[in-house]
Design brief:
This protein is α/β, with parallel strands linked by helices and 216 residues long. It has 9 helices and 8 strands. The longest helix is centred in the first third of the chain and has 15 residues. The protein is elongated, with a radius of gyration of 18 Å. The structure holds flavin mononucleotide. The site of flavin mononucleotide (FMN) has 19 residues, from α1, β3, β5 and β7.
């Protein structure tokens, strides 16, 4: 029986730098043996086939974008493990930058569902394009030590994805989910994780085959 975890990596972006990070996380998880789908966050995403979720968003004005934010209550309801990543203008490298990104992460998390128990959370640098930023904004950003350009740190992204890979649950097939429902307490049986009617991801085509080329 195939017990490798089925993981959904989902993300919200405006300009595309978050997509690249999501695809790199997906590729790293895939290389570790997980079955992974990588999709933009959307209200009609079918969460049933997946054993775990990695959700990320670009940060705009200290907050996540709506498509990823709106998905969080649904992810919480599954009762399955969730990891989050944020993509912002600051590369969390060095003491000062790390203090700023930690503060920003706390601010971002204020709009998450209070009961959402995350298995892990990270902030990554994205792409800073100052072309359309007014002069005062560019000067302020520079004074804070910011620089335009692609700040994505692929080694950090891959290292975090490897941490996730090491903590993934095993895949529970339909029969195991049914068995868990009948043999556990009523409380456990009502949890969304154990009652999920799972159309097989492979059959529904929602999880790409492991031979899919990584999104690099
Ligand atoms: C309108 C706007 C607001 C932004 N606000 C923030 C912010 O509050 N904090 C931050 O760290 N980065 C901020 N950024 C930088 C973006 O998060 C960064 O460019 C990121 O790479 C964008 O991701 P995307 O390419 O996936 O859209 C902002 C960028 C824009 C264009």
């Amino acid at each position: 029986m195939d017990t490798s975890a089925r993981v959904l990596v989902t993300y919200a972006t405006v300009a595309g730098s978050t997509t690249g990070i999501a695809e790199r996380i997906a590729a790293t998880l895939r290389a570790s043996g997980a079955e992974v789908a990588c999709r933009p966050a959307a209200p009609d995403l079918d969460l049933d086939p997946f054993d775990a979720f990695v959700v990320g968003s670009a940060v705009h004005d200290m907050a996540w974008l709506a498509p990823a934010l709106d998905l969080l209550p649904r992810l919480q309801e599954t009762g399955r493990p969730v990891w989050c990543f944020s993509v912002g203008g600051i590369q969390p490298r060095g003491r000062i930058a790390r203090t700023m990104t930690d503060r920003e992460l706390r601010r971002v998390a204020r709009s998450f569902p209070p009961a959402l128990a995350l298995r892990g959370e990270r902030m990554f640098g994205g792409i800073i394009d100052l072309e359309h930023t007014p002069l005062w904004g560019r000067l302020f950003f520079r004074a804070m030590g910011g620089r335009a350009g692609d700040h994505r740190d692929w080694a950090s992204v891959e290292a975090w994805a490897e941490e996730i890979a090491a903590a993934l649950p095993r895949h529970r097939d339909d029969a195991q989910r049914r068995q868990a429902r009948t043999s556990t307490s009523p409380a456990a049986g009502t949890s969304p994780a154990s009652t999920a009617t799972a159309s097989s991801p492979a059959a529904s085509g929602s999880v790409p085959s492991r031979s899919d080329s990584p999104g690099r």
